TrEMBL record:
One Pfam family linked to the record: Aminotran_4
Keyword Iron included in the entry's annotation: no
Keyword Ribosomal protein included in the entry's annotation: no
Name assigned to this protein: Branched-chain amino acid aminotransferase/4-amino-4-deoxychorismate lyase
Domain of life: Bacteria
Entry GO MF terms: lyase activity; transaminase activity
Keywords tagged on the record: Aminotransferase, Lyase, Transferase
Similarity comment: family membership: Belongs to the class-IV pyridoxal-phosphate-dependent aminotransferase family.
GO cellular component: cytosol
Biological processes annotated in GO: carboxylic acid biosynthetic process
Entries under PANTHER family matching the protein: AMINO-ACID AMINOTRANSFERASE, AMINODEOXYCHORISMATE LYASE
Lineage: Bacteria, Bacillati, Actinomycetota, Actinomycetes, Pseudonocardiales
Length: 281
């Protein structure tokens, strides 16, 4: 099932074409997006998602988004949804028509079902490969035009990495930097468990600040875990008590195999983290 809402409060027919062929999002991936999980009619982490949308817009010199209009569009999707209890709502914000100095941004919210593959991964865990992203953390300051940390529509590289993972017989990817530290997944944040402490790399290394990572850390802290945001050397991925990829739609997904090596059994930690994460909503 799909539900399409525009920012002027109107609904669209998701089976009909609306985007112009000269839209910069289509021609160049010039735009931003968010994906918000809705469960039982309630959006999760909507505030942080909208804050990040505004931050991405600023990084791309896009007009400041009207966050109240976006909130209403998400609500429109929820109000017109009569499918399963979970919705992935994509917020898409493109610059508009190429070459038109007065181009209006083209924006919409699209509610979609969650993929069966994602649900299977949540339940059964996944195999991942580590892939070099080809730069070090210093690039963030040296080359801000790379837009590291913005959630842009240019995900061709991320999808290529996922296809490489599939070629290697795995489901997903952990990107590493040239200094050997851990970055993120192509569509997820990396979380490590060692003893009763959770670790994730800081956004300053050139990754997206994850809304789910923040929610998981908040819940875990309340459940007695310590949490640390610091650089993680890639070799720690193999020796941790638990390795997880987290994101709005996949929630907390357990990694059972890394680069062909079976990891320590983290099913109990996974269950505990999932319970804590779910309990806060
Ligand atoms: N990092 C990247 C590159 C992503 O694309 C995503 C989500 O799609 C995340 C991290 C996780 O972000 P969130 O937890 O806010 O969904």
């Amino acid at each position: 099932m799909r539900v399409l809402a525009f920012l002027d409060g109107t609904l669209g027919d998701p089976a009909q074409p609306y985007i112009r062929v000269d839209n910069t999002g289509v021609l160049r991936g010039d735009g931003i997006f968010e994906t918000v999980l809705v469960v039982d009619g309630r959006p999760r982490e909507l505030g942080p998602h909208l804050d990040r949308l505004a931050r991405s817009a600023a990084m791309l010199d896009l007009p400041e988004p009207d966050l109240t209009a976006w909130e209403h569009a998400v609500q429109q999707v929820i109000d017109n949804w009569d499918g399963s209890p979970e919705i992935a709502v994509k917020l898409v914000y493109t610059r508009g028509s190429e070459g038109d100095p007065d181009a209006e941004p083209f924006c919409y919210a699209l509610g979609m079902d969650i993929d069966d593959k994602v649900k299977r991964a949540r339940a059964e865990g996944i195999a991942v490969v580590s892939l070099d992203r080809g730069f070090g953390p210093e690039v963030v300051e040296r080359a801000p035009w790379l837009l590291l940390g913005a959630k842009t529509l240019s995900y061709a590289v991320n999808l290529a990495a996922l296809r490489e993972a599939a070629r290697r017989g795995a489901d997903d990817v952990v990107f590493t930097a040239t200094d050997g530290s851990v970055l993120e997944g192509p569509t997820s944040t990396v979380v490590l468990a060692k003893g009763r402490t959770l670790y994730t790399p800081p956004p300053t290394v050139g990754i997206l600040p994850g809304t789910t990572q923040r929610a998981v850390f908040r819940a875990a802290e309340s459940a007695g875990w310590a949490v640390k945001i610091e650089n993680i050397p890639a070799d720690e991925l193999l020796t941790a008590d638990g390795l997880f990829l987290v994101s709005s739609v996949r929630k907390v997904t357990r990694v059972h195999t890394l680069d062909g090596t079976r990891l320590a059994d983290s099913t109990a930690i996974h269950r505990e983290l999932c319970d804590a994460y779910e309990a806060q909503y």
